[in-house]
Amino acid sequence: MIHGTRRRVLKGAAGLGVAAIIPSRLVSAQDLTAQEKELHAAAQKEGEVTWYTGQMQAEPSEAIGAAFTERYPGVKVNVVRSTSQVAFQRLSQDMRARVQQCDVFSSTDVSHLSFLKERGQLLDYKPANTDGLLDIVRQASDPDGFYFVTYLAPYLMGRRTDRVSDVDAPKSWTDLLDPRWKGQISIGHPGFSGAIGVWAVLMKKLHGPDYLRRLERNSPQIGRSSADPVTVLNSGERTIGAAMPSATTLLSISRGNPLKLIYPTDGTVIVPAPSGAIREAKNPNGAKLFMEFMTGPAYSTTVRKFFAESLRTDVPPPDGAEPLDKIKLLMASNEEVEKGVPEIREEWRDIFGV
Question: Residue 104: in which H helix or E strand, if any?
Answer without folding.
Answer: strand 104-106
